Amino acid sequence: MRRVKKQISATALSKANFHPIKLSRATRLYRGSSAVRWGLVLVLLLLLSGECPLSVAQKTGGDAAPATAPAGEDFAVRGLEIHSSRMWRWKSVENAFGVMEKLGMNTLIFHESDLTDQLVLPRAYFSSDLMWQRWPVRLHLVLDNNRQYIRKVAREAKRRNIRFFLEVKEIWYPDGLIELHPELIRSNGVVCATDPFWWEFVRKKYEELVGDIPDIAGVIVSPASRESRVSMVANPCKCERCRAYDPKLWYESLFRAMYEPLHAKGKILVVRDFSYRRDQQNMVIDSTSRVANDIVIALKNTPHDFYPTFPNNPRIGLTGEHPQWVEFDTWGQFVGSGFFPCSLIEDMQRRLDYCHRNGVSGVWFRTDWENMNEASVFNSPNLLNLFGGGMLSRNRAQPLENVYRAWLEYGLLDPLIPESTQGAPVPVNPVQMERFEKFMQASWKVIEKTLFVRGHLFHENGMFPDSVKHAFDMMTQIHGRDDWEPGASKRVEPTDENIRAVIAEKEQAEAEVAKLPGILQIEESGLPPQTKKDLGTILDLYQWYVKGFKHCATACFLAKKAMNTRDRADIEAALRAADNLAAYRAETARRLENTSYPHYVYEFFDVERLDRLINDIRGLAAEVHMENKPVPAVTNKSNYKIQSKLNANVYRYEMDFE
């Protein structure tokens, strides 16, 4: 046999996906036949050079994050996420599988904060005898129902060549754990986030998970969202250890406790960034490198959450040696909640291109939200955005007309029908495509000017603000832009110039939403009568919704200005705006009377939130002066009674809103 020499450079070594073989195993192989010896040498050479045809998954004995997309496709991972109780409804899962196969998507994600704890007890702490004695309902739910259901989902995904991930928030634990380990509770009644027990508990949990449900591809975890039961970002414990604990060490310990049992079974750990601030984001991402470089970093397309008016997430392309995936929202949590339709595919195409240029290998697309039942892209015209995600993640440069055409050929879905009772999609004649395309694009422009104020989020999950403070907190604190765009909050300070711009923005939204029926021309669409009727109802509600946000924004900004200036004329202006909002509230209640819409419509038009906002503005007006006389002089013009009481040199004002 002719000996073949292959020179291996240092560069090749550094780039190789090399997994060392234990010496004892290699020695046993080498003692075999000559063919085996030469075969081993050849495999080692190919591994070192990076030319071995084996996939990474084959080398590790399980799944691994693909580093590059197949030829002709832009992203290797193209996922669909279900983020609500719909995941436990087989019809919804089956619909998702059907669309995934149609669009060539290869990854299914179930996202529920405590999903792992719905699938394992874990038995290391909760024996069968103990569960029978204390928690028999959870015993049957976890081991008999949930586990078998998720196993079926995993099998079905595998049969369709779709990888299946669980997405969770950690640290989570079942209630009974505190009963078994009361030392986790400190003297002030709070759970200690830094007790070393947590790393043992998390490790045991994931060891059992991969043993009980072996067909999952991996786990996606959000460690810094404030939405888990134990975290460093919302840790109320002030014990000496917590005060001195390095947050990076906390994240490292959590990631290691998850990574090692997952990796041992060839599963992927994905660390998902869901941070409210830049410093938290950097801390989470940087901590993963202390554990392993093959942990995938997942980033939202925009920082903190899915805000189309925000800049690109600043950490895209800056994850070191970690593979990076990016997630998008297609349903529209912050842009109409799927009920008020809008296209995101124009924005998506630009951001996917940015992701591709910055080395992103995977993307996935959320289809719903955990806090709104019966609503998803599967009962919304916003299914367009899922089609966009699926198609553009394979070829981001294709004309968007392809996406609109494929969506309309599949058919329209109706937001006025709950998802669980939704019928078959209603296909649209291709000759109508231009109208629907212009309509969806124009509707985004309306949403942008309605639910955002100069690029800042101005609502709570599609609902009206319920106080002036909350409205401004949403814009500048809870969903603030300053961390990602320094100085952005200056655009929403209650100055005369800014207030004029805000009111003009809302008036423009009101004018543009009135044009949407003329763009769509429902009566000429050729759609079935019920579909046309429901579209007409949605467009009518849409106009009323935009008007409500105009009144809310005007009243909030004028009230905030009055609080700052304490000027009588400004107080009068704020009270007039509150009166206009009260008239809108009364008409809204009349319009909703004796209606039977899906429950989420009543969330969008919640008159109780309007009541709280109106009363808040009127109450603030009574507090802006320390003198008694100017306040009744102003408020009485609005026909609202006010009484003042002087007690211990403090004026107290009581207003009668009846």
The total tally of domains equals 3
Question: Could you describe the largest sheet, including whether it forms a barrel?
Answer: 8 strands, parallel, barrel
Q: What is the number of helical segments per DSSP (H or I, 4+ residues)?
A: 24
Radius of gyration over alpha carbons? 28 Å
User: What would the CATH topology of the largest domain be?
Assistant: TIM Barrel
Provide the CATH architecture of the largest domain.
Alpha-Beta Barrel
Order of strands across the widest beta sheet? 1-2-3-4-5-6-7-8
Shape: globular
Rounded to the nearest angstrom, the distance between the terminal CA atoms is 101 Å
Describe this structure in words.
With 658 residues, the chain is an alpha/beta fold. The chain has three domains: 10-54, no CATH class; 77-424, TIM Barrel, CATH 3.20.20.80; 445-656, no CATH class. The protein has helices spanning 10-15, 23-30, 34-49, 56-60, 90-103, 128-134, 136-159, 176-180, 197-212, 240-244, 247-264, 278-288, 345-357, 383-392, 400-410, 433-451, 468-478, 496-513, 516-520, 529-565, 568-592, 599-604, 607-621, 630-635, and strands spanning 77-82, 107-111, 163-169, 218-222, 268-272, 296-300, 324-329, 362-366, 452-453, 456-457, 641-647, 650-656. An eight-stranded parallel β-barrel has the order 1-2-3-4-5-6-7-8, surrounded by six helices. Strands 9-10 form a two-stranded antiparallel ribbon. Helix 5 links the parallel strand 1 and strand 2.
